[in-house]
């Protein structure tokens, strides 16, 4: 019997050693791109260190007992009458209680204020509004309202002030490891500092993903995230603030402008190809007939550019229907371009300029 | 003569279904009455007679009463209230389709109904996994997927609540404590007959658009979404809740008052203790589930604003009310599973249940603490952040009583003589699976890590490990363990082992990768996902399909063994508890006279231990034996 205790202990130690080595060296999250995310990843790793010996204890006892004590057919005799009335349960209780208390304090309680605490004086305030099925991002300090991508400067603290315009949503950026629900009727807040430059094109975890079931297109309630240098951020802000609604806002419509009408209905465009001449203005009349559903019409250099929300040529703001938007711009050089609804990528088509 | 012989089976089938047919007819009449009542009031008020959700609610409320009375409450119970004599129920196999008060028949009614529902919801899971083979929503539309996902969720929740306690609790608690039946046999039947309307409503909801808010039905989505399917859902839940509360009442009364002489609390089989603990939860907490659903219903049909932010309501309030039940609910799922597991581990290790009193303390400790942990489901809900620390503390503390159950399991098998029959294999698997489920719960209890893990596939993997790993595996352990007692036949051990290995290996291979998917940015309840997640999803889906296939040998084994199985003796496992002292299957009254309990149920290997219980001879009284 004593031999059994020794052997199972050896098995337990061996399994624990393997487990802890894996815990030290294996990556848990893919790239972690925020300061709080790094705290969270470390907390996760510490919990794994504590969890491994518990897991391996159970596995060791199971494996050892099954390997050495199984019978063929009905057992001829009973096992030893170990009742477990004395020190063993008391020791188990004490050890598990101590373990629980430890884990509760670290990495539990001590990190709550760090993760859930909100920065009083952040470098940047970003307002977020969740609405079925997109996100409106606003930078109130910089006069940029309701854009459809989240652009942030690296290494600058941000406070997000989040609400919902309809049902519960949840503001989650997987790459930042941070998340909080968007609740109608109240403003929820989180803050963090992005620590890595990146974009959705290179890393799909650079996205704002809704993480609370919110209806039909919950899965696609995403907008891309870009973390850029401070200089690039200032440039982007300036461009956005000046652009107001469209890159050519206020430009007079020329007499020979080519006009095309596109209808957005039942989450689809009615035409998927526009052929236009170069050297003339193009005026797109976009008729959004889907009540309460946000659409826009945005023209990009290519399908890949559209996916990464880069190289925007012209576009309208994302707004809920029913409403009519006009987008006026000079026809680009001859070639094939790609237009899309930024909220619903299945709504798309090609603009062929000849 | 030939004509008579041919007509008998047909008559048999029709007359077997008479209670169901009468229930449907009376239910329909009740529905019409309820809908007409509210329709007349509306017409007087100058509005339309029919408004789907409102008429549905009142119609259903009366219709349910009609169904219950038609299905048998009137014939065998209600008549008494008016001084009329009750009518005899059917005999033979017809009893399984009727309002029968025999706890063994009700147990089988629950078992068959919920195992069928389990397989149906499993098919929905197969659909889900087929959809998730590709990143785009190519197979099902987004709406269909959300509805299939919601249906999969709620049917499995209902199965998890009812299958072990309704099936095996009903069948075996009276046998294990030496009783003739449960304390309230007619309430027992009533609890079961409330279940068919629940299933009908959930499926009928699909005809009017289903509901997409999962089984959690958070408002404002559930109060604002256009589909009337949401009402069908809330009404079904309220019905199911009433059934569950009555069941809890019944088990508590039975276990407290109907134990045979000598069956002290210290000699109670651990499975009965787990039923006692589960019954407390069902009796005391289910009301909150019903309340939350009622409030959603009222927000939809009566312009109340419990959860309407613009009118001063609070969506987060719903989550508090909902989870106040739904967290204890997960212990309703798991405690029966742990009870079955400990029971089987003891008998199949031929050893006493290790640290019996501590195990009981663990079960009761879980019950007490489960009332204090609910808001760990709400760490990222936007609730006041001062609530986070207390709920982290209570949630972590609950791992201590849970650990005591593991102490008992490991101590019981240690140095035992392990008879690795199918029930034992499943019981051992529970220990392994639930350990993984429990440990991963710590990562969710820890609020900082929970911020990144909440609403991702990490959570999905966690709860499938605890519920399937802790309850469903135990369910199958119980099925194989008690199959010979219920049917009088023995199942095929070969097929049982095939089922076990296929299921155990594919289950782990399906759900371990899900933790990884959650860590890599895949959230829950999505019909499509980012393309980088496709590989892991293919692995999960393929393993999931194998797991689905693993139920085929099980179903075949059950059918084949019931029909052609070898006759089983009364005590094939040489176990000490009372159910093995009676024939297989047990007679109507279970015991010829109340048995006398003279020893502990698990005193294997104890020298000169008295038997756990002896059957008195029929007709003998206690005075005679003194």
Fold topology:
The complex is a heterodimer of chains A (354) and B (626).
Chain A: H1 2-25, H2 35-69, E1 70-71, H3 87-116, E2 124-131, E3 134-139, E4 144-147, E5 150-153, E6 158-164, E7 169-173, E8 178-182, E9 188-192, E10 198-199, E11 207-210, E12 222-228, H4 230-243, E13 258-264, E14 273-276, E15 281-288, E16 294-295, E17 298-300, H5 303-307, E18 312-315, E19 319-320, E20 323-330, E21 335-340, E22 348-353
Chain B: H1 2-44, H2 52-81, H3 103-131, H4 142-177, H5 185-193, H6 195-204, H7 221-224, H8 229-257, H9 270-301, H10 315-349, H11 356-370, H12 388-397, H13 399-413, E1 418-419, H14 422-445, H15 447-453, H16 457-487, E2 489-490, H17 493-519, H18 534-564, E3 566-567, E4 596-597, E5 613-614, H19 622-625
Antiparallel strand pairs in B: 2-3, 4-5
Helix pairs in contact in B: 1-2, 3-4, 3-5, 3-18, 4-8, 4-9, 4-10, 4-16, 5-8, 6-8, 8-9, 9-10, 9-11, 10-11, 10-13, 10-14, 10-16, 11-13, 13-14, 14-16, 14-17, 16-17, 17-18
Please, could you describe this protein's structure?
Chain A has helices at residues 2-25, 35-69, 87-116, 230-243, 303-307; strands at residues 70-71, 124-131, 134-139, 144-147, 150-153, 158-164, 169-173, 178-182, 188-192, 198-199, 207-210, 222-228, 258-264, 273-276, 281-288, 294-295, 298-300, 312-315, 319-320, 323-330, 335-340, 348-353. With 354 residues, chain A is an alpha+beta fold. Chain A folds into three domains: 2-67 and 86-116; 124-243, Cupredoxins -  blue copper proteins (Immunoglobulin-like); 258-353, Immunoglobulin-like, CATH 2.60.40. In chain A, strands 5, 7, 8, 10, 11 and 12 form a six-stranded mixed sheet that branches. A five-stranded mixed sheet of chain A has the order 4-3-2-6-9. In chain A, a hairpin with a 2-residue loop joins β2 and β3 (134-139). The longest helix of chain A is centred in the N-terminal third of the chain and has 35 residues, at 35-69. Chain B is an all-alpha fold and 626 residues long. Chain B has two domains: 2-81, no CATH class; 100-567, Cytochrome c oxidase-like, subunit I domain (Cytochrome C Oxidase, Chain A, Up-down Bundle), CATH 1.20.210. Helices cover 67% and strands 2% of the residues of chain B. Chain B has helices spanning 2-44, 52-81, 103-131, 142-177, 185-193, 195-204, 221-224, 229-257, 270-301, 315-349, 356-370, 388-397, 399-413, 422-445, 447-453, 457-487, 493-519, 534-564, 622-625; strands spanning 418-419, 489-490, 566-567, 596-597, 613-614. A two-stranded antiparallel ribbon of chain B has the order 2-3. The longest helix of chain B is centred in the N-terminal third of the chain and has 43 residues, at 2-44. Classes of the chains: A alpha+beta (354), B mainly alpha (626). Chains A and B meet through α2, β1, α3 and β8 of A and α4, α10, α11, α12 and α13 of B. β1 of chain A pairs parallel with β1 (418-419) of chain B, so a sheet runs across the interface.
């Amino acid at each position: 019997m004593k031999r059994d205790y020794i052997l199972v202990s050896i098995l337990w130690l061996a399994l624990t050693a393997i487990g802890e080595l894996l815990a030290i060296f294996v990556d848990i999250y893919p790239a972690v791109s925020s300061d709080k995310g790094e705290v969270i990843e470390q907390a996760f790793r510490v919990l794994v260190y504590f969890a491994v010996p518990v897991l391996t204890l159970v596995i060791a006892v199971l494996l050892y007992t099954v390997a050495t004590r199984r019978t063929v057919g009905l057992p001829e005799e009973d096992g030893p009458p170990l009742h477990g009335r004395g020190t063993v349960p008391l020791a188990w209780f004490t050890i598990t209680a101590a373990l629980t208390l430890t884990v509760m304090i670290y990495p539990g309680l001590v990190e709550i204020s760090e993760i859930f605490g909100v920065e009083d004086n952040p470098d940047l305030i970003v307002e977020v509004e969740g609405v079925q099925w997109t996100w409106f991002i606003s930078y109130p300090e910089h006069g940029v309202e309701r854009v459809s991508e989240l652009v942030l400067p690296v290494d600058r603290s941000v406070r997000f002030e989040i609400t919902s315009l309809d049902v519960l949503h949840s503001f989650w950026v997987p790459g930042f490891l941070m998340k909080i629900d968007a609740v109608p009727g109240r403003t929820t807040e989180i803050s963090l500092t992005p620590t890595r430059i990146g974009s959705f094109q290179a890393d799909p975890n650079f996205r704002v993903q809704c993480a609370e079931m919110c209806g039909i297109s919950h899965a696609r309630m995403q907008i891309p995230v870009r973390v850029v240098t401070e200089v690039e951020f200032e440039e982007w802000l300036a461009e956005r603030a000046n652009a107001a609604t469209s890159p050519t806002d206020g430009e007079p419509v020329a007499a020979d402008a080519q006009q095309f009408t596109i209808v957005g209905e039942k989450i689809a465009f009615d035409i998927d190809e526009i052929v236009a001449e170069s050297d003339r203005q193009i005026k797109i009349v976009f008729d959004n007939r889907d009540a309460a559903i946000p659409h826009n019409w945005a023209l990009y250099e290519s399908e890949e550019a559209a996916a990464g929300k880069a190289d925007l040529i012209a576009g309208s703001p994302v707004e809920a229907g029913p409403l009519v938007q006009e987008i006026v711009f000079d026809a680009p050089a001859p070639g094939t371009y790609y237009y899309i609804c930024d909220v619903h990528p299945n709504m798309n088509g090609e603009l062929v300029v000849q | 003569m030939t004509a008579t012989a041919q007509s008998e089976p047909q008559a048999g089938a029709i007359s077997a279904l008479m209670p169901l047919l009468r229930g449907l007819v009376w239910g329909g009449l009740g529905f019409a009455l309820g809908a007409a009542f509210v329709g007349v009031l509306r017409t007087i008020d100058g509005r339309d007679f029919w408004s789907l959700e409102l008429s549905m609610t009142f119609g259903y409320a009366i219709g349910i009463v009609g169904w219950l009375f038609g299905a048998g409450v009137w014939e065998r119970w209600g008549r008494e209230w008016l001084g009329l004599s009750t009518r005899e129920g059917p005999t033979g196999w017809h009893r399984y389709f009727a309002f029968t008060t025999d706890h063994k028949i009700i147990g089988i009614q629950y078992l068959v109904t919920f195992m069928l529902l389990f397989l149906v919801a499993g098919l929905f899971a197969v659909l889900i996994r087929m959809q998730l083979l590709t990143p785009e929503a190519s197979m099902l539309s987004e709406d269909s997927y959300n509805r299939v996902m919601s249906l999969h969720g709620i049917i499995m929740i209902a199965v998890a609540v009812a299958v072990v306690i309704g099936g095996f609790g009903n069948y075996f608690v009276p046998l294990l404590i030496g009783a003739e039946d449960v304390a309230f046999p007619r309430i027992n039947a009533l609890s079961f007959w409330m279940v068919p309307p629940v299933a009908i409503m959930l499926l009928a909801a699909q005809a009017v658009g289903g509901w997409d808010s999962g089984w959690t039905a958070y408002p404002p989505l559930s109060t604002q979404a256009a589909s009337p399917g949401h009402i069908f859902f809330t009404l079904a839940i309220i019905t199911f809740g009433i059934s569950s509360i009555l069941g809890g009442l019944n088990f508590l009364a039975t276990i407290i008052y109907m134990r045979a002489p000598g069956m002290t609390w210290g000699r109670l089989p651990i499975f009965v203790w787990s039923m006692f603990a589960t019954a407390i939860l069902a009796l005391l907490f289910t009301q909150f589930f019903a309340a939350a659903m009622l409030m959603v219903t009222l927000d939809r049909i009566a312009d109340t604003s419990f959860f309407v932010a613009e009118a001063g309501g609070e969506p987060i309030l719903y989550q508090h009310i909902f989870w106040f039940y739904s967290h204890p609910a997960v212990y309703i799922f798991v405690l029966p599973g742990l009870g079955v597991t400990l029971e089987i581990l003891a008998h199949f290790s031929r050893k006493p249940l290790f640290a019996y009193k501590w195990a009981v303390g663990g079960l009761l400790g879980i019950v007490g603490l489960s009332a204090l942990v609910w808001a760990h489901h709400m760490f990222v809900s936007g609730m006041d952040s001062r609530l986070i620390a207390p709920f982290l503390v209570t949630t972590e503390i609950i791992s201590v009583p849970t650990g005591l159950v593991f102490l008992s399991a490991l101590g019981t098998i240690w140095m035992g003589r392990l008879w690795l029959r199918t029930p034992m294999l499943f019981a051992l698997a529970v220990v392994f699976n639930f350990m993984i489920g429990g440990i991963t719960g710590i990562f969710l209890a820890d609020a900082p890590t929970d911020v990144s893990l909440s609403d991702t596939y990490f959570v999905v993997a966690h709860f499938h490990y605890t519920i399937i790993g802790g309850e469903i595996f135990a369910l199958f352990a119980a099925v194989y363990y008690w199959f010979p007692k219920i049917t009088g036949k023995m199942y095929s051990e070969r097929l049982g082992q095939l089922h076990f290995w296929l299921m155990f290996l594919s289950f782990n291979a399906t759900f371990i990768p899900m933790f990884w998917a959650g860590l890599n940015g895949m959230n829950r309840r999505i019909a499509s996902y980012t393309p980088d997640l496709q590989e892991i999803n293919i692995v999960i889906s393929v393993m999931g399909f194998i797991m689905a296939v693993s139920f085929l040998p099980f179903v075949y084994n059950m059918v084949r063994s019931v029909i052609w199985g070898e006759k089983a003796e009364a005590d094939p496992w040489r176990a000490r508890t009372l159910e093995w002292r009676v024939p297989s299957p047990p007679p109507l009254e279970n015991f010829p006279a109340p048995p006398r309990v003279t020893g502990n149920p698990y005193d294997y290997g104890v020298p000169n231990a008295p038997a756990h219980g002896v059957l008195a001879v029929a007709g003998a009284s206690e005075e005679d034996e003194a």
